[in-house]
Amino acid sequence: METTRQQKIDRLIQKELGEMFQRQTQAMRGVLVSVSNVRVSPDLSVCNVYVSVFPSEKADEIVKNLNDNVRSIRYDLGQRVRHQLRIIPELKFFKDDTLDYIEHIDELLGNK
Q1: Which residues contact 30 (CB under 8 A, 6 or more apart)?
Q2: 37-62 residue pLDDT tens
Q3: Whose CA is closest to 69, among 57, 58, 80, 61?
Q4: Which of 15, 68, 104, 108 is the most buried (most CB within 10 A)?
């Protein structure tokens, strides 16, 4: 069970990263990157970020790119939330493939 503090930090990081990615992907036509979920560890040192990418074919490439540039993303995030957080957690990016999973289940059930 997450504490209230963890939930607040989850929402703050999700909002700020979502805005950062939205601004950065405007130059890439036809690609949409959104932060679907954020989970901060109980000691607030590690943050797992789940990213949803459209089109899903580019998801692995974009998540790899995010993990390769995690230091600069963490720095930019720190600049945005420096008045709310004292320590910026380490970021780990993961692909959120729940929408693909839902589509697959619908296909198996014959709903499409």
Answers
A1: 55
A2: 999 999 999 999 999 988 888 889 99
A3: 61
A4: 15
